[in-house]
Structure formats: C-alpha cells, structure tokens
Amino acid sequence: MRTWLTERFGIGVPVVGAPMAGVGAGRLAAAVSAAGALGMIGVPSAATAEWIAEQAAIAGGDGRPYGIGLLAWTLDGDPARLDAVLDARPSLVSVSFGPYAGPVERLRRAGITVVTQAGTTDEARAAERAGVDAVVARGSEAGGHGRGDVATLPLLQSVLDEVRIPVLAAGGVATARGLAAVLAAGAAGAWVGTAFMGCVETALPDAATGRVLAAGETDTAYGRVFDVVQRLAWPPEYGGRALRNAFFDRWAGREEELASDEEARAELEAARRSGDYDTAYVYAGQAVGMVRRRRTAAEVVAGFAEAERLLRRFAT
C-alpha cells in the first residue's frame, strides 16, 4: 500500500498510532513503528519537558520514525514542551485543540512534518491555511478529545473534497476493513487509537485494560464531565469520548454544579489512585467493541496490513 503517509515516512502500513495521553508513551510508539506503522507519543496536559525527552528517547531509540502529539491549549505561555519536542526532532508532530498557528510555524521551520486534527470541514480548511502538511479528519466516533459534531465518513468525504493537502481518517477505524474503506475513499491513511488500547505495550493499568476488553460498541459516552471535575482548561468545544460509568451518568447535564463540587473532585482523584473505574475514566472510541483480547502492537499492525488484500479483492 503506497500513500502519502507511507512514502513520507518510509513505513509499510498507512496507519498512525494516535497520540493517546496516559495510554501511548514511548514504549507503545516504538512498538507501533517497529511493526511498520507510525507510532506516536501522547503528551498529557501536565507533562514536563523532561518527560517528553525521556519518552522520545524510547520511541526513537532504534532510529525508526515516530511522532509526538501536543495539546495546543497547553502550550500558550509555556514554551518548554514545544522546545523539548523540537530538541527531540520526531518525524511527525500533531498540534491540536486550541491555537496552533505559532507552533506549526516553528515546527515547519525546523523541518518537521506537522498535522492537526479537525472535527469539521471548516476546521480542516483553517488547518490548510495555517500551513500544516496534512489534516486528520477526526469523526465523533473517536475516543478521547475532539468535537462531537460529525461522524467520520461524512466528515472525511467533505474534507477530501475541500482541501488539497493529504487527509488522514480518524474515528472508528479498528480493523483492516475500516482501513480499506478510508483508503478507498481517498484518505492517505488512518489515525488509530482505540484499536491499540488492548496492547501489552500501553501505559494503561491492568484494571483499565480489563474495562476496555469487556466494553461493547454502545458502552461509550461523549461529554465534558471528566474535564470539568478536574478543572482542566480544555476549550469547551472539545469534549471527550470515554467508557460510560456511574460517575459520568451521575454528572452528565450537571456540569455547572460539578465545576465547584470539591467532594466530587476528591472522589475522582481517589478513584484514579485506587483504580476504581466505576468513577475514574478510560477514554475510548466506539470501536472499543472490536478490542477483545490482549495483543501486541505488532499483531494489531499486521491485522491492518490485510487491508491491501481487501482492496485488491474489491478491485476485481
């Protein structure tokens, strides 16, 4: 399979392991890249420059390409994270969810390929104007943070028609069939997170992985509950899709009240420490029902490689 993504980075499978904060650090990124796709490090909002340098050394230790994902809203007024990324010189950097024009300019001046995630066609057009090398059309099925407005296939079709830069598809792509579908539509590859959440190389606690493996396709919910309770400064248009639990159900629709409830905040923090996922969160997309057992990243990537056979079959 030859696409802009495979040619740009010299990889064999047109899949990017999406940057998942708290899930995908250097070990997972290295494993995805070693398997022939492109692994990424997800930088948490509280990560230090030292943490970025440590994880980048792990991800890039064998010389293969890898990427780093940054949250744009965390960079304003704190240049240390971006400086650490520039020092690491990954092959790819994504800067999403907030003002990203300044970081994009610095990264491109350094010769680093830059992408951003877009949840609407207007966001994709703006990304192209800002000078990114490619845009990720991120549908509402995707796990973690982003817009919840448009599903992947409608968004992908619209974005492909409206921009001239390469487009990657995110949201709901968890198997070779999904990869074949977005490639056939014209995407340069898939931006995949949830499919890697059962991998042995993730940073997830065992209890959280167990929740992922037990979840079905209808067991996620989208909203801002977990950000509000932690007082995180996420732009309000970007909610998060996570496994539905009792804490989410109790507070969904009561976010204004939750924003000042210190008991609820303490409850969540205690649950995170103890691994109580009836209260603590596990971000995952609607494809979670297809993640049924522990696997290595190499096994997941090998499964995606079957898309080439499917595309040949469909072409005959």
Automatic annotation (TrEMBL):
CDD domains: NPD_like. This is Nitronate monooxygenase. Gene3D superfamilies: Aldolase class I. InterPro entries: Aldolase_TIM, NMO. Its EC number is 1.13.12.16. GO terms for molecular function: nitronate monooxygenase activity. It is an enzyme of class 1 (oxidoreductase). Signal peptide: none annotated. It comes from Streptosporangium sandarakinum. Keywords: Flavoprotein, FMN, Monooxygenase, Oxidoreductase.
